[in-house]
Structures are given as structure tokens and as C-alpha cells.
Amino acid sequence: xxxxxxxxxxxxxxxxxxxxxxxxxxxxxxxxxxxxxxxxxxxxxxxxxxxxxxxxx
Length: 57
Known about the structure:
By secondary structure, the chain is mainly α. The protein contains two helices and no strands.
């Protein structure tokens, strides 16, 4: 349990440091890389559920 709290504290500390010292540059780069990775998924940017072809026979 302590290890989990340490990781959460490190993540929060990184985000706060990035926002205050670097104007969010590192966080923006991480978000951009996640968006690029999501674009490679078949659903694209959306995370919706589609039912294409369920009623067609």
C-alpha cells in the first residue's frame, strides 16, 4: 500500500512541477503521444461502442 501511495505522490509531484516550472511542456508531450497512439487504434479518437452489422444478415 505504501508503494502505491509513493507512486501516486510522484505522479502528482511531477504534474505540479511541470505545470509550475515548465508551463506544462512535459505533460503536453505525454498527452500528445497518447493521442497519436489512440489514432492508431481502429476506433480512432473516439472510445464509443459501435454495433455495425448486428442487424444485417
